[in-house]
Amino acid sequence: MAEQQHSYTAADLESYLHFAISLAQLAGPIILEGFNSRFTPERSALLVKKGNTADLVTEWDQKVEKIVRAEIASKMKGHCFIGEETVAAGEECGLTNAPTWIVDPIDGTTNFVHGFPFVAISIGLAINQEPVVGVIYNPMMNQLFTAAKGHGAYLSKIDENPREQGRRLPLSYPHAPLPLHDISMALVAGEYGSARGTKDINARTVSMRNLAAVEPAAATPGRKAGHAHGIRCLGSAAMNMMCVAQGQFDMYWEVGCWEWDVCAGIIIIRESGGVVVDGCGRKVTDGQLLIGRRFLCVRACSGEDGNSSPEANAAAQRKIIEEAWSIVEDIEAPRK
C-alpha cells in the first residue's frame, strides 16, 4: 500500500519557515561561542567518529542538536526529526512522507575545529520526502539563507526580514543570470569527503582531476575532461550549495553527503533557479535523491543567446548536467 501523502498550504510553509529561522537564531550564538572558544583554555575536546580523523564531532555539535531537537519536539507536534548526531548515536531515523525536520547542527565541523569560517547550521523540512523549507545560517559571517517552496530564496542577516531587507537569489536578480556554455567556463566546487579508503578516495580524486583537466585520466576509459576554470573545496556541503544558489559557484559535485547536509540546500538552490540531481547520472525521485548521497548542483543559467526563460534555463542546465555525468566516475555511496 502506498504511503499516505501529507497536504500543506502556503500559509503552513510560511509558518514553518519562520519557525526554522527562529531555530537558527537560537543556535547561532551557541555555534559562535564554540567557534570563538577555539583559542581559549576552555576549548572543547574533539570526538572522532569511528576512528576516522577526517570525520569529527565536538560537544558543540551535540549541544546545538539537542536544543534544536527539543524545540522541534515542543513546537511541531507530530513532526519527525533526523539529525546528524542523533543518527551517529545509533538512533534509527528513516525518511517517510511525514513532515520531517532534517538538521545538521554544525555543517563543516572540521572547519569549525580549525577556525575556518565556512560553517553553518542547516535546517531543512521535507514533506512527502520533498525538501520544502530550508534555512542555512553561518553565524561567523552573519549570512542567513532562506527558502520555502514557491516563495523564492533569499540572503539576509539574522536580524533582518529576508524578503523585505534581504537580497533575492541568485545575486544577479533582478537581472538575468549569466549564461554557462559548458564546464570549461565554470568555477566548480567539490569535496574529497570523509571516506578515505583507497577505493573511495581514488574515485573522487579521478573525478576531480577529470573536471579540471584538459585530458581525462588514463585510468578512466570513456570519461571526458572538463577543463574547468577552477575547483574549490569549502569543506561544507551547505556553504558550497549556497555559493551555487548565489551564482558564485557554477556547479557543485559531491558523493558521500547525507540528507542533513543537503536537505535545506536543495530547496534553497531550487528556489534560486538552480537544480539538484543525482551526482552520477541516475534517475531518482526526490526521496531517493535526498538519501542517495550523490549530488550535482547547477546554478541558474541563461541560454546561449541570453534567453532567461525557464525553458532556456532548464535547457542550459541540462547541457551542463549531461557533460558533468560524462566526466565524473559512477561512484557507489552505501548508507552503511
N to C succession of SSEs: HEEHEHEHEEEEHEEHEHEHEHEH
Strand order of the largest sheet: 3-4-5-6-7-8-9
Strand content: 15-25%
Radius of gyration (CA) equals 19 Å
Summed over residues and divided by their number, the pLDDT gives a mean of: 92
- Number of helical stretches of at least 4 residues: 10
Structural class: alpha+beta
The total beta strand count reads 14
Shape: globular
The poorly predicted ranges are none
Blueprint of the fold:
Elements: H1 10-36, E1 46-48, E2 56-58, H2 59-75, E3 80-83, H3 84-88, E4 100-107, H4 109-114, E5 120-127, E6 130-138, E7 143-148, E8 153-156, H5 162-165, E9 167-168, E10 187-190, H6 198-212, E11 230-232, H7 237-246, E12 251-255, H8 259-271, E13 275-278, H9 286-292, E14 294-298, H10 310-325
Parallel strand pairs: 3-4, 10-11, 10-12
Antiparallel strand pairs: 1-2, 4-5, 5-6, 6-7, 7-8, 8-9, 12-14, 13-14
Helix pairs in contact: 1-2, 7-8
Defining traits:
seven-stranded mixed beta sheet, globular, alpha+beta, 336 residues
Explain what you see.
The chain is α+β, with helices and mostly antiparallel strands and 336 residues long. β7 and β8 (153-156) form a beta hairpin. The strands form three sheets. Strands 3-4-5-6-7-8-9 form a seven-stranded mixed sheet, sandwiched between helices. Strands 11-10-12-14-13 form a five-stranded mixed sheet, with helices on both faces. A two-stranded antiparallel sheet has the order 1-2. Helix content is 36%, strand content 20%. The protein contains ten helices and 14 strands. The mean pLDDT is 92.
